[in-house]
Amino acid sequence: MNNNNKIKVLLVDDHEVVRAGFRILLSSQPFIGQISDLDRGELVTQEYERFKPDVVVMDLSMPGIGGLETIRRLQKLDSDAVILVYSIHDEAIYVERALEAGAMGYVSKNSAAEVLAEAVKSVAEGKRYIEESLLPEVDDVRHDNIEHYRKVLDLLSPREFDVFCRLAKGMTAHEVAADMHLGYKTIANYNTQIKSKLRVNTAADLANIAVVLGIIKP
């Protein structure tokens, strides 16, 4: 933490309204100091070095490189970076992937406002924070399906995982390319690589895997 013991926060979310809401919520807390914000992951490492935040609060589903790849890049830049994911995704697989990438905590956007403030304070103090409502689902995956779960996850890079999630939810390659600000050919190549790694041939196969992993509901 900085010298006045207030937590400097960097917010990363592609929705301006969400960032504005975060600012209002966090700035009302006596333990929060300066706040900076960005709308995409590509800018995070540069702003991190300039602003030197105590905590980075980050969404996962952003255009461009996405949250998981951004976490990976931050961890490569500074292995001590404190990252809290604040995401609409409350499925266990997202929590596990974020923690594995290097996040210190995970909070759902469906949670009460005070939960985010509590989470920021906790991770700034070096404590891992996972929203309580997410813990049972995460524990179930760890205990009941851990071996299969790990094998599937380890096959995909963070970027491939982001593409996989979009394809599994029914987006076309053109739609994924537009959403991630990448070329169609790039997404088509990812699509081929992902199917090869998972040993499947169709979009339906990807959807079935996503259902098993809890990414989409059956």
Automatic annotation (TrEMBL):
Keywords: DNA-binding, Phosphoprotein
Gene3D superfamilies membership: 3.40.50.2300
Domain of life: Bacteria
Domain Response regulatory, residue spans: 8-124
Residues covered by the HTH luxR-type domain: 149-214
GO BP field: phosphorelay signal transduction system; regulation of DNA-templated transcription
4-aspartylphosphate sites (modified residues): D59
One GO MF term: DNA binding
Family matches, as CDD domains: LuxR_C_like, REC_NarL-like
Protein name: DNA binding response regulator, LuxR family
